[in-house]
Amino acid sequence: MEKEDYGFAGLVEIMARLRAPDGCPWDREQTHLSIVPCLREEAAELAEALAEGDDLHIREELGDVLMQVLFHAQIASETGRFGVADVIADVSRKLVTRHPHVFGEGDKLRTAGQVVTQWEKIKKGEKDKQDRKSQMDGIPVSLPALQYAAKMQTRAARVGFDWPDAEGVFDKIGEEIAEVRRAREARDAAPEEAKDAAKAHLEEELGDLLFSVVNLCRHLDAAPEEALLASSRKFARRFRAMEALCGDLKSRTPEELDSLWRRVKAQEPPQER
């Protein structure tokens, strides 16, 4: 294939060629479900590239995500279910329908909050959403756990099942911490034959605590997934700095490690601490 063919149509052709009878054996064996891990990985790598702000890396990862979309469309087209043109038409129609303030005669909206409210109202009225019997229906269970919890809480809040403000959530977190402490004590005191049940109860209480923290993030208008990822990256950065200062950390005492951590933290710009 000539370089001039490296446009969108050319990419669609490449994907079809890979899946052809005389194409790539690995690509030909794949199914929608078998390549789900690839889609997750590519999406995660794109998110990482966006966080880094490296345009070349972003461009590469966007291409990898696009390839996954075309892969699924190609698999579906081979049995006549739908093709990439149908995917494009559906998303185009959705964008136009859900933005009447841009493409239609709807009132001009001035804030992002107004847009979100209108978007959800339009979604609720769409025919394919009317069969849902619960606010919890339609939330993908394969979402990252923090994001899944936040979406469930947002759905519950739509019908008024929510704390009126963040103060109630702070109190709830305090209650959950106390319950985790009691569950830990019960696990430690449990006889051997009851250890598994006690451990399961402790994990349940830890889950309740995490769920409440996600709720606090939502009330404070923070994305829990992004907040935890930022803190994890900060931890990794500081830990690497500790290793750079001392090499092998295994020989250090807890007090020395704590001192190293404080030293590394103090060397960071104020906005990164």
Task: Provide structural commentary.
With 273 residues, the chain is mainly alpha-helical. The chain folds into four domains: 3-97, Orthogonal Bundle (Helix Hairpins), CATH 1.10.287.1080; 100-129, no CATH class; 146-222, Orthogonal Bundle (Helix Hairpins), CATH 1.10.287.1080; 227-272, no CATH class. The protein is 69% helix and 0% strand. It contains twelve helices and no strands. The chain has helices at residues 8-19, 25-29, 36-52, 55-77, 84-97, 100-103, 112-125, 145-158, 166-189, 195-219, 224-246, 254-267. Helix 3 packs antiparallel against helix 4 and helix 11 (224-246) crosses helix 12 (254-267). The chain is globular, with a radius of gyration of 25 Å. The mean pLDDT is 90.
Strand-helix topology:
Blueprint: H1 8-19, H2 25-29, H3 36-52, H4 55-77, H5 84-97, H6 100-103, H7 112-125, H8 145-158, H9 166-189, H10 195-219, H11 224-246, H12 254-267
Helix pairs in contact: 1-4, 3-4, 8-10, 9-10, 11-12
Shape: globular
> Any idea of the CATH topology of the largest domain?
Helix Hairpins
Number of strands: 0
Going by CATH, what is the homologous superfamily of the largest domain? MazG-like
Can you count the helices?
Answer: 12
Distance, first to last CA: 52 Å
Rg value: 25 Å
> Would you identify the regions where 5 or more consecutive residues have pLDDT less than 50?
none
Helix content: 55-70%
Average pLDDT confidence is 90
Number of domains: 4
By CATH, the architecture of the largest domain is named Orthogonal Bundle
Provide the succession of SSEs. HHHHHHHHHHHH
Tell me the structural class.
mainly alpha
